[in-house]
Structure formats: structure tokens, C-alpha cells
TrEMBL record:
<feature type="transmembrane region" description="Helical">
    <location>
        <begin position="176"/>
        <end position="194"/>
    </location>
</feature>
<feature type="transmembrane region" description="Helical">
    <location>
        <begin position="200"/>
        <end position="220"/>
    </location>
</feature>
<feature type="transmembrane region" description="Helical">
    <location>
        <begin position="227"/>
        <end position="248"/>
    </location>
</feature>
<feature type="transmembrane region" description="Helical">
    <location>
        <begin position="17"/>
        <end position="37"/>
    </location>
</feature>
<protein>
    <submittedName>
        <fullName>Uncharacterized protein</fullName>
    </submittedName>
</protein>
<feature type="transmembrane region" description="Helical">
    <location>
        <begin position="96"/>
        <end position="114"/>
    </location>
</feature>
<keyword id="KW-0472">Membrane</keyword>
<keyword id="KW-1133">Transmembrane helix</keyword>
<keyword id="KW-0812">Transmembrane</keyword>
<feature type="transmembrane region" description="Helical">
    <location>
        <begin position="74"/>
        <end position="90"/>
    </location>
</feature>
<feature type="transmembrane region" description="Helical">
    <location>
        <begin position="126"/>
        <end position="146"/>
    </location>
</feature>
Amino acid sequence: SRLAPNQRARAEGRSPIIAPGLQPAALTAVLALLLALTAPLPEAVRCVPVVLLQAVTAAGWFRLNGMWPARQGIALAFLAGVTTDVALLATDRKDAPLVVLGTLGVWCLFVLVLQLRNRSSADERMYALTAGLTSTALAVLAAGQLSATSDAVVVGAAAVAPAVLVRALPLPGPVSAVLALLAAAGAGAAAGQLNAFGTAGALLGLAAGCCALIGLRVASYDYPSRFVHLTAGVALPLALAAPAVHLLGPVLS
């Protein structure tokens, strides 16, 4: 039978690191564009791309860890993200850190209770618990795209899009990484000229670009399948950039 590219790489003993490539990067850029376009709109509208990001993040992380379908774990992680969104909409922006920590704690407890009912071996339960907690944390942290200021979201999204696209180009690894970070900083600076950030947008763009590249690297590990690339490879760059956008936005604006 014909092997998938990741299966062939494993069978041939090649590197377990397989980058997502251009198509997932293009999808990340589209999702980043949606975040940027909806950022100035009412918060209910801003929720739409954030919820999509959280859904893809939850599914992608479980598949990245070889756990599928894992419906309960994915549902819990996704609901944790949506609960965070609703709580953020109902509270002031200055309370966002407490809201995120509170919802994260509650839903991590739910994940723990779910695994206590698991009748698998101890190792399998621990692996499932780790994947569930991490997926939940990522879905909750992705809500940072909602709690951040609209200007910060625009700058961060504008930086992540070119960063992942440049990283997907067929260039030597260190070269593409440097060019991707330069593209992120440049796009952040350009977006900053359109709002309150000004040239400080370059710093926020650089931070968001760094987080995006970390997300791409994580989505490249352990012979990932095409499905992993089209879920985790799409979502993780923006999900990991969310905390940077939320935390650095007020500092740099």
C-alpha cells in the first residue's frame, strides 16, 4: 500500500521533524487576516475567528500527540476556550488575567476528573492527562486574541502572517527563520503606523513572530501527518502569539 509522506519518512529513518509547509501557512495567514479585520469591530464579532482558532487548536494538539478521535478531551478543551471568551466578554479588560486563570483552573479540574474515570494503564492515563491539560491551556490562552486591544491584535496578526509564509519557503532553516522574524518585525512596524503603536509595532511584531515560529516548530515534531499540519500547524502560531499580543500590547502602545 502507498504510504503517507510522514509514514514513509518514519520507515526510512529520516528526521522526525517535518515542517507544515506552504498550505498550512496560507491558512494561518487567512485566519490572521480574519483576526485583523474583525479586531476593530464589536467583541461579539471578534469572537468568531477566535472560536475557530480555539477549535482547531484543541483538535490539532490531540492529533499531534497521536490521540484521535479523543472526542471528550477535544470537547473539554474547546469548551474551556469558549467559556473564557464568554467570561472575557462579560468582564472588564483589566480583569482579563484573573478571568483566564480562573477558567483555566476550573477546566483543568474537569480534565483531571475525566482522567480519574479512565480505566487505561497508568502510563496511558498520564499521557492523556498531559495532552488534555496542555490542549485546554492552549485553547484558553488563545482567548488572548480577544482580551487584547484591537490595535495589538492587528499588529500581532499582521506579523504572524508573513512570518509563517516566509518560514514555509524552501530556504535553509536558519536563513528562513531570520527572514521570517525580519518579516514579522517589518509587518508589525507597518501595521503600527496605522494605529497607536507606531514604530513600537516592530517590537510587538517581532515577539509575535517568535511565538509563531515556536508554534510551527512544535507542529513539526514526531513525523506529523497532513492532518496535524492542517490543524496544529495552522493554529499554534496564532495561539502561542496570543499571550504576547495581550501582555505586550499595553506596554508598547
